[in-house]
């Protein structure tokens, strides 16, 4: 164990040094993104907006810690325990620094992830941003376990905007009360986004979009085939009825101008917030709103982030299995409730790293689930609080839709998936979500219509996770 920690420390030191000299050599514009939810989706949306005009590199996978952030800067993968590959990569980096590679990115879009106090200090010692986005923090953020409360988490994340130069740009969620408490931590210019009427980039008229089912789609209903939308993205076509959920539409108001935004195969406010933050980044880099709106038609959420997938027996799966915080679960439930379905099935795993808030947060979710869900699957020891609250506790029990016979408890995601396989019916919509360590994507793999596409569609499918 001691030897392993020495190796890890040495690797971190080398990566940090090489990252610093690479930034010094190439001087890329750095856009930093932090928050308790929405970092990865925002990163992808920002990349989508910028890639048509600039050479851009964004963090791969969840490269947002003391190892991942330098890997993004250096443009190399994680080589695990292969020392020879690590040394080969280090020599390539040094070679590029000495000879200067002209194709190095003009812009780096980096995620700054924190778990404990002073994590941000270390990441900032490697790369300070020129512009910074704080997505959302919420009342009970993920990773609050090692902090006193959500405000302490916010103060740690606020170090990102504190590190901005005076001519930098802080892009903040106007709807998040915790973020409002820390916005005075920076001397940089602030631009806000959100539904709040005084937001600089104001979101309006957010709505779910549908499209009518064609005769060809009626045929595919029985064959189980997926269809292509006009934009070339795959649209899920397994529902009954005359229309299909297609995505979201909303309007952005900025400096007296209003422009419509359409996101295909994206659902719920989380994706709207991610797109709005990306719009702010585009604007500060002098991309006009029309170009930004056009770029966002290419945006697709990463695997495991509120993506709609084909399920068995003409069902649909709302796959939100990447991770879970209380705020993110509540938002996912809002999306589930807003989409049409014959039955709504909720499959929730434990939420980790929320410390003293664990029971309260899980029970609050159980209370919400019970009011509209038809079936609940709780996976893990902490998720039992969800099941208990949904089935036997809370106020006004008569108003609840769930009863004890519709609640199932499991120890792991695979067992939950196998039970789902037996009870799913045509027209069901199944939300699957939980913290990363619960591996809830395994439940999705049991019930997805195209398991052969799991590597393409699901999160955590590489060799390391498998």
UniProtKB/TrEMBL annotation:
The highest taxon in the source lineage is Bacteria
Q: Does the keyword Protease apply?
A: no
Coiled-coil residues: none
Keyword Transit peptide applies = no
What molecular function does GO assign, one term? ATP binding
Under Pfam families, the record lists: Mur_ligase_C (PF02875), Mur_ligase_M (PF08245)
Which InterPro entries does UniProt cross-reference here? Mur-like_cat_sf, Mur_ligase_C, Mur_ligase_C_dom_sf, Mur_ligase_cen, MurCDEF_CellWall_CoF430Synth
Which residue intervals define the domain Mur ligase central in the entry? 33-76, 104-214
Q: What is this protein called?
A: UDP-N-acetylmuramoyl-tripeptide--D-alanyl-D-alanine ligase
């Amino acid at each position: 164990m001691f030897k392993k920690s020495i190796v890890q420390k040495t690797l971190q030191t080398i990566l940090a040094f090489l990252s610093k000299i690479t930034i010094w050599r190439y001087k890329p514009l750095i856009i930093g993104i932090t928050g308790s939810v929405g970092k990865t989706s925002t990163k992808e949306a920002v990349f989508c907006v910028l890639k048509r005009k600039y050479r851009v590199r964004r963090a791969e996978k969840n490269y947002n810690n003391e190892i991942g952030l330098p890997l993004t800067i250096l443009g190399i993968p994680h080589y695990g325990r292969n020392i020879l590959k690590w040394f080969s990569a280090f020599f390539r980096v040094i070679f590029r620094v000495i000879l200067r590679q002209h194709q190095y990115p003009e812009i780096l879009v980096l995620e700054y992830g924190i778990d404990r106090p002073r994590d941000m200090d270390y990441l900032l010692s490697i790369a300070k941003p020129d512009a910074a986005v704080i997505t959302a923090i919420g009342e009970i953020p993920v990773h609050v376990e090692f902090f006193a409360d959500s405000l302490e988490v916010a103060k740690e994340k606020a170090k990102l905007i504190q590190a901005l130069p005076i001519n930098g740009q802080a892009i903040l969620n106007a709807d998040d009360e915790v973020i409002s408490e820390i916005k005075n931590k920076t001397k940089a210019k602030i631009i806000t986004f959100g539904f709040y009427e005084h937001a600089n980039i104001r979101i309006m008229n957010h709505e779910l979009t549908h499209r009518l089912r064609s005769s060809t789609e009626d045929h595919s209903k029985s064959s189980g085939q997926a269809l292509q939308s006009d934009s070339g993205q795959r649209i899920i076509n397994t529902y009954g009825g005359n229309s299909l959920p297609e995505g979201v539409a909303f309007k952005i108001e900025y400096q007296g101008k209003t422009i419509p935004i359409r996101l295909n195969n994206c659902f719920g406010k989380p994706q709207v917030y991610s797109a709005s933050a990306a719009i702010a980044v585009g604007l500060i880099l002098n991309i006009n709103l029309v170009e930004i709106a056009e770029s966002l038609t290419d945006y697709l959420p990463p695997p495991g982030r509120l993506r709609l997938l084909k399920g068995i027996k003409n069902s649909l799966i709302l796959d939100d299995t990447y991770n879970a915080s209380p705020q993110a679960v509540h938002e996912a439930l809002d999306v589930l409730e807003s989409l049409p379905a014959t039955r709504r099935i909720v499959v929730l795993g434990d939420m980790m790293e929320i410390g003293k808030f664990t029971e309260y947060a899980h029970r609050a979710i159980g209370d919400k689930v019970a009011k509209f869900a038809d079936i609940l699957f709780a996976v893990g020891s902490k998720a039992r609080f969800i099941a208990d609250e949904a089935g036997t506790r809370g106020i006004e029990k008569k108003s609840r839709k769930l009863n004890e016979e519709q609640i199932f408890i499991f120890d792991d995601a695979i067992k939950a998936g196998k039970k789902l396989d037996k009870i799913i019916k045509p027209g069901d919509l199944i939300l699957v979500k939980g913290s990363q360590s619960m591996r809830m994507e395994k439940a999705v793999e049991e019930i997805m219509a195209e398991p052969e596409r799991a590597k393409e569609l699901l999160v955590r499918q590489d060799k390391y996770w498998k």
